[in-house]
Design goal:
mainly beta; Ubiquitin Ligase Nedd4, Chain: W; 3-stranded antiparallel beta sheet; 9 strands
């Protein structure tokens, strides 16, 4: 869980939950009772990469803090002053030693538990894997072998699998997690079939 801010960064006064009128109506947020500073709590941008080699395999890695058998995509925080594209190339190089030679955006997903928004890319790489100290194990898998998980980066992986002409298979990322994908996120629906959207009539 992300940490909650407790003090005003402008005057160090303890923040309080206070309601104020905003564009969307009355909204309660952490605010400073002394100088009126507001903590918006905006999500942090996190970059993720579906890393593919010249053999058409995807790289999955295990973080040193994860239990044995749990593998995921290469991810990292975007840094100030860099574009998402430059950031994901940097992260892939820092975490795996691989150099990106082509990339395309897959999409963006929320990670509410950590108050993050995930921006995912499909990257083609060259070189040999040299893991950073944050990662302890890796594996290359084909689109047929890989199992996606029902959360942000898992949906990015599912997009990559489907781009190979294969229907993604889902499973739990951790024990106790539901293995079923969120029906609002997978399978993909045309706008006309998604109740969340109104499609304008053709002109």
């Amino acid at each position: 869980m992300h940490q909650e801010m407790r003090f005003c960064p402008c005057c160090a006064t303890p923040l309080q939950w206070m309601a104020q009128q905003e564009d969307s109506g009355l909204k309660e947020r952490l605010r400073c009772p002394s100088c009126d500073w507001t903590h918006w709590g905006n999500p942090t941008p996190v970059l993720a990469a579906v890393v593919e080699n010249d053999q058409g395999e995807v790289l999955l890695a295990r973080n040193a803090l994860w239990q044995e058998g749990v593998f995921g995509l290469i991810t990292g925080f975007m840094e100030a002053g860099e574009s998402p594209e430059a950031g994901i190339c940097r992260e892939v190089l820092e975490e795996t030693g691989l150099r990106t030679k082509a990339l395309r955006m897959l999409g963006a997903w929320e990670f509410l538990r950590m108050n993050q928004v995930l921006i995912a890319y499909h990257v083609r790489v060259e070189g040999s894997v040299q893991l950073s100290p944050e990662l302890v194990e890796f594996r290359w898998q084909t689109a047929q072998q890989v199992r996606c998980w029902p959360s942000g980066t898992g949906y990015a992986l599912a997009h990559w699998v489907r781009s190979k002409g294969i229907e993604p298979q889902f499973g739990a990322f951790r024990p106790g997690q539901s293995p079923e994908p969120d029906p609002s996120k997978w399978p993909l629906q045309p706008w006309a079939e998604d109740a969340r959207f109104m499609v304008a009539p053709p002109l």
